[in-house]
């Protein structure tokens, strides 16, 4: 009962007129409904909804959300129904619970498409009522906190998904503390070896660090107050995942990461923020290129702050963030800080078309409408969610935030799709640049358009935003379709003429042939012929049965590439372990660029004369290939081939470590065929091993055991080409 009281007093604290008895009743209902159920930890099940509700209260969300947190698993796991909840707790609570239930239980599958589908559902739910997502995030956070009770395989999958989807989502919604905790928890389960090593390193220096933080805090505060800036200063170690990212990025060990501690100056007004910046730069030497003004140019998730880095009082680099207490609230709670409490209810949560604040969300939802393939959708959305932004200007001075690495085409599409479609070049800060130019912070961009310009395949390699990618893909497909119409018409016309008839004369017969061949219209039939999915012979057999049979001339063919292939290569190989469109005996090659392993999500591409090439689903090269040549493939579980993979191990350059590493390979029963080792200047070693493994599980085992070796910083599967 203790935790419920805690939740109640928390809610009453930020929302004095809250309907607390409703929360109490929701708890009682949940406790009864889940009676007799237990969690994997052995605790009564209701501890989970309670913990979720507690997180929701920490986010200071409204009563309906807190109740929804308490009731979120009732409909899925107990005999309770939505109607019942609606009757007992009102429509709003029932709506939220239904929303969370529809998002589904934890998607335990690694299949990308299912993940994409889940993600798509989430975006749509978010558009309707963002509280659904917030409750789901809190649910995921509690699940991550109790992940240690699940078997390792599930841990890894759930953690990977959290890192891929939930943490970026929390970041995008600006809920910093949830993002940070999700990242560290995911890190712990996806890279246990590296996590433990780093956690150990960090805690070792803890006392020393605390003392350092404390003295620098005092120093900064004194300087500020002496110069008339009232403020509070807080120093804090960065979270493990961000330190780890920095170590990987800079290829440095923990001891050399000097800005692992950040300082925050919280003051009372925007004016004092800029004044504080002045004081900091006047007292300590600023490091060039590190100053960022997110007050004048807020991040898309509404974050505001001044960032700078200076050579600190002990000659070390320190990062300083300066903001008002109001901005600090937004920095921690993000979208949740924007809740406006009015007379016991809150203003609408749906994101209206005019709400500029969450333009990115609206754009994502918009682009998903046009993407038919969920994998493609996930691929492009990930960039938008993960990437850092660059801020650029229109000639009129409007700011646009685009993912890092964006090119002028992305910018053009963010202005208007017709500008994107006809974008032929760009002027950046007055200078003409090529379309592959990567936008930089502060660039002013003017797009040059030409009516004759249209998107081409190369654009897909340049663009970064989901919006541009979707539009370009769509137009390219449209173009292919137009070509298919021309080709199909031509082929069918020729075939008909051989039998002394024409498209117009045979219209009636073609209509019924189209229906028999499962095409809605004759036009559709023609397109299918153009794509090679239906042959003219098939059409003739249906449309002109007597003539077609009598004819001994070979009919004009535009055979489906797959059908030809099937005939040619039947029974050539049988141990590849791959099924192509359900058929087993197809000539299969594994792409060198990504070396897929049994267990990897894969996709096949039909090649001319060389059977089917299998790529990993997330392989860049695969994404660039013609979608028309794409074909479903899956592992059949009977493969006998060993697959070569390249594994890169970054470790300290200590004697004996290499022996340890190769021992670890042979312990796993894996042979190394090649090894390249190179020492770096800072006393570390980069080793690339080529080894043959059976499948993804075996590779994961190898990686896991290598990660556990002391002195190993990171273990990555890399492209065999690079090795
Ligand atoms: Mn749950």
How are the secondary structure elements laid out?
Elements: H1 2-14, H2 20-33, H3 47-58, H4 63-71, H5 74-77, H6 82-89, H7 91-102, H8 112-128, H9 130-145, H10 152-172, H11 176-190, H12 192-204, H13 206-226, E1 231-237, H14 240-250, E2 261-267, H15 270-283, E3 285-286, E4 292-293, E5 306-311, E6 317-324, H16 325-333, E7 341-342, E8 345-346, H17 359-370, H18 374-386, E9 389-393, E10 399-403, H19 408-415, H20 417-421, E11 423-428, E12 431-433, E13 445-449, H21 459-462, H22 466-498, H23 507-516, H24 522-531, H25 536-543, H26 545-550, H27 561-569, E14 578-580, E15 588-590, E16 602-606, E17 612-616, H28 620-624, E18 630-631, E19 633-635, E20 643-652, H29 657-667, E21 671-679, E22 684-693, H30 696-707, E23 712-718
Residues 48, 72-73, 139 line the site of manganese (II) ion (MN).
Describe the model.
There is one protein chain. With 723 residues, the protein is an alpha+beta fold. Strands 1, 2, 3, 4, 5 and 6 form a six-stranded mixed sheet that branches. β11 (423-428) and β12 (431-433) form a beta hairpin. The longest helix is centred in the middle third of the chain and has 33 residues, at 466-498. Mean pLDDT is 81; it is low at 106-110, 340-354, 551-559 and 566-574. Residues 48, 72-73, 139 line the site of manganese (II) ion (MN).
Give keywords.
six-stranded mixed sheet; four-stranded mixed sheet
Mean pLDDT: 81
Q: Could you give a short account of the major beta sheet?
A: 6 strands, mixed
Rounded Rg: 30 Å
Kindly state the number of beta strands. 23
Outline:
The protein has 723 residues and is α+β, with helices and mostly antiparallel strands. It has 30 helices and 23 strands.
């Amino acid at each position: 009962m203790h935790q419920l009281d805690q939740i109640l007093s928390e809610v009453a604290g930020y929302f004095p007129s809250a309907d607390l008895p409703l929360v109490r009743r929701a708890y009682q209902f949940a406790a009864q409904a889940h009676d007799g159920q237990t969690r994997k930890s052995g605790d009564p099940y209701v501890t989970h909804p309670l913990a979720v509700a507690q997180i929701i209260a920490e986010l200071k969300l409204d009563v309906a959300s807190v109740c929804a947190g308490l009731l979120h698993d009732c409909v899925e796991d107990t005999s309770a129904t939505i109607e019942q909840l609606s009757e007992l707790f009102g429509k709003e609570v029932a709506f939220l619970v239904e929303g969370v239930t529809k998002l589904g239980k934890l998607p335990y599958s690694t299949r990308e498409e299912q993940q994409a589908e889940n993600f798509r559902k989430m975006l749509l739910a978010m558009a309707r009522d963002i509280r659904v997502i917030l409750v789901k995030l809190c649910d995921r956070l509690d699940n991550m906190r109790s992940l240690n009770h699940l078997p390792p395989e599930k841990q890894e999958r759930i953690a990977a998904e959290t890192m891929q989807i939930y943490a970026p989502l929390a970041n995008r919604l600006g809920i910093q503390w949830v993002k940070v905790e999700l990242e560290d928890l995911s890190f712990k389960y996806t890279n246990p070896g590296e996590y433990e090593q780093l956690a150990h390193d960090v805690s070792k220096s803890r006392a020393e660090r605390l003392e350092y933080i404390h003295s620098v805090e005092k120093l900064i505060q004194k300087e500020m107050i002496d110069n008339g800036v009232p403020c509070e200063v807080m120093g804090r170690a960065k979270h493990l995942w961000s330190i780890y990212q920095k170590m990987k990025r800079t290829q440095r060990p923990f001891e050399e990461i000097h800005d692992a501690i950040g300082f925050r100056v919280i003051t009372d007004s925007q004016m004092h923020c800029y004044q504080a910046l002045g004081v900091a730069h006047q007292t300590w030497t600023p490091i060039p290129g590190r100053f960022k003004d997110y007050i004048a140019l807020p991040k898309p998730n509404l974050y505001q702050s001044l960032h700078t880095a200076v050579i600190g009082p002990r000659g070390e680099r320190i990062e300083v963030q300066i903001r008002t207490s109001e901005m600090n609230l937004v920095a921690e709670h993000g979208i949740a800080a924007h809740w406006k409490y009015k007379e016991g209810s809150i203003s609408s949560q749906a994101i209206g078309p005019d709400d500029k604040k969450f333009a990115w969300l609206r754009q994502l939802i918009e682009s998903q409408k046009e993407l038919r393939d969920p994998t493609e959708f996930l691929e492009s959305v990930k960039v938008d969610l993960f990437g850092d932004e660059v801020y650029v200007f229109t000639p009129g001075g409007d700011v646009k935030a685009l993912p890092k690495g964006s090119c002028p085409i992305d910018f053009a599409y963010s202005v208007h799709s017709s500008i994107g479609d006809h974008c032929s070049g760009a002027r950046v800060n007055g200078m003409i640049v090529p379309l592959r130019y990567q936008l930089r912070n502060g660039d002013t961009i003017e797009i040059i358009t030409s009516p004759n310009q249209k998107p081409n395949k190369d654009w897909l390699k340049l663009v970064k935003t989901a919006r541009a990618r979707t539009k370009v893909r769509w137009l390219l497909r449209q173009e292919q379709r137009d070509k298919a119409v021309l080709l199909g018409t031509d082929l069918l016309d020729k075939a008909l003429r051989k039998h002394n008839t024409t498209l117009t004369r045979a219209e009636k017969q073609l209509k019924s042939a189209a229906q028999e061949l499962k095409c809605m219209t004759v036009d559709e039939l023609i397109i299918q012929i153009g794509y090679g999915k239906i042959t003219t012979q098939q059409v003739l057999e249906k449309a002109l049965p007597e003539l077609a049979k009598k004819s001994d001339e070979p009919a004009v063919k535009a055979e489906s590439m797959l059908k030809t292939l099937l005939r040619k290569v039947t029974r050539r190989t049988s141990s590849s372990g791959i099924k192509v469109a359900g058929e087993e005996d197809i000539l299969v090659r594994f792409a060198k660029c990504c070396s897929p392993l049994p267990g990897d999500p894969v996709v096949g591409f039909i090649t001319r004369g060389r059977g089917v090439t299998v790529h990993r689903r997330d392989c860049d090269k695969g994404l660039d290939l013609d979608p028309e040549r794409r074909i479903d493939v899956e592992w059949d579980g009977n493969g006998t081939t060993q697959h070569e993979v390249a594994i890169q191990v970054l470790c300290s350059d200590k004697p004996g470590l290499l022996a340890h590493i190769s021992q670890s390979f042979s312990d796993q029963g894996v042979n190394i065929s090649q090894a390249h080792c190179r020492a770096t200047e800072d006393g570390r070693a980069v080793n690339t091993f080529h080894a043959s493994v059976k499948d993804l599980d075996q590779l994961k085992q190898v990686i896991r055991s290598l990660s556990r070796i002391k002195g190993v910083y990171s273990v990555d599967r890399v492209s065999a080409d690079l090795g």
